[in-house]
Amino acid sequence: MAPLPLVVGVDGSEPALLAVDWAVDEAARHHLALRLVHASPWAAHESAVPPSGGPPSARAAAGRVLAAAAGRAHRRDPRIEVSTAVLAEEAARALLNEAGDAAFLVLGSRGRGPLRGLLLGSVGLTVAARAHCPVIVVRGDPAGLAGGHGRILLGAGDPGTSGEAVRFAFREAEARGCALDAVRAWRCPAYESLDHPATTGAPERRYEERASALLDAVLREAVAAHPGVRVRRATVEGPASKVLVLRSAAADLAVVGARRHRGHAGLQLGRAAHTLLHHAQCPVAVVPEVPRPA
């Protein structure tokens, strides 16, 4: 059975074209085909051939967007197998449907929609929060986009809720031959320090030791499965969202998990993932932890 392709949503915008560049390099690392898709709900109601002298149809315009993206992908790496498709439905719904047959989805940080002034477009946020496959939002500085830092940043959650994100991060580090920075943030409630003024530092040490033990538990299986990956563990005091955004400046990819609840229609993103999607200085991978059927 052939591996699933890497699916990229394109709309002709500059962020989407940067996502194509990033996805081509990623497809080469993992020996995957590339599927470029463009969503156009109007395409289902129009002919591919516009009336004589009239404006181009939505399907024809979508075809040009895809042709430009495919040409860019081929120029970047002609070895990658590229296919294209016009999806005749709303963008977020189309991409969520694609997630079922994708190794993962890749999106630009902003698109051409009416909300393009936001830090992250509404389509990207919706897809990252609901997809049942990993979603990578391509953003950040040139060094991170080019993979120049030589490290993957993993925001480690709790055992049992972040296994997929951990495995994804280790596979990425192995494919790239780079280091993996595994970070667990912790905080000591202020009232504990105030309640025990005579034991200054003791509550903090307890919380840090607990964070370190949880980090070791989260990483244990992946470390054994990927002995060649260089892992640098860190427990850092502070809000996870702030800690990870700061450390993203020295990473090529930030990886975080997201719990998925079956039958839940709302956005399913934790605070750290939501903040990274808007403010990270490198591409961000949101990897869902989907509960298995009972």
From TrEMBL:
Pfam families from the UniProt entry: Usp
TM regions (residue ranges): none
Location of the UspA domain: 6-139, 151-288
Stored InterPro entries: Rossmann-like_a/b/a_fold (IPR014729), Universal_stress_UspA (IPR006015), UspA (IPR006016)
Domain of life (superkingdom): Bacteria
Family: Belongs to the universal stress protein A family.
Name of the molecule in the record: Universal stress protein
Native source species: Streptomyces toyocaensis
